[in-house]
Design brief:
single chain, mainly alpha
């Protein structure tokens, strides 16, 4: 969902502050911000809105793997465990997110992304800027993220599952 609560406007503000960084956004647009959101996307040369991603028809991991960093600026207090955080790990794409719900359990701060304690556009700009300026750190994070995905494959737990079920 592209909405204020999910951080869409924060991403647009970050894009405005970082004109040399490309931003790609997906999702259904909340009608309360639709007109302003579309207008701002059109005004910013470094922002592309791709519409709703069809994860049934298309491969989310393949799509995510095209990018360097996944931004997850959701401020929703009941986010749970978003599947896109796991998909980003499997794609080897570090995530920058706010410290909400279980984000700090899925993202190892400074290793597989950044968990920001300050819910501001400045903290997002700073984190994105660090990775944009230090490509070696970004590549190390991408590798660590890909390695951390191992914990999310069911195949890694089949023996344990069979053992529990056979008791």
């Amino acid at each position: 969902l592209v909405s204020e609560e999910k951080g869409a406007l924060l991403v647009l503000n970050s894009a405005e502050a970082l004109p040399n960084v490309d931003f790609h956004m997906y999702g259904r647009i909340d009608p309360t911000i639709e007109d302003g959101f579309i207008q701002r996307c059109d005004e910013l040369d470094n922002v592309s809105y791709h519409g709703i991603f069809d994860s049934v028809k298309d491969d989310a991991v393949a799509e995510l793997s095209q990018y360097d960093v996944h931004l997850f600026p959701s401020k929703c207090p009941s986010e749970g465990v978003p599947g896109v955080l796991v998909e980003s790990k499997i794609a080897g794409v570090p995530t920058i997110a706010f410290n909400r719900c279980h984000n700090n359990e899925l993202i190892q701060n400074g290793e597989t992304g950044f968990v920001l304690v300050d819910d501001s556009v400045n903290s997002f700009i700073s984190a994105i800027g660090k990775l944009d300026a230090d490509r070696r750190k970004l590549m190390n994070m991408k590798q660590a993220t890909l390695e951390s995905a191992e914990h999310f494959y069911i195949e890694c737990y089949l023996d344990e599952i069979v053992d529990v079920l056979s008791r």
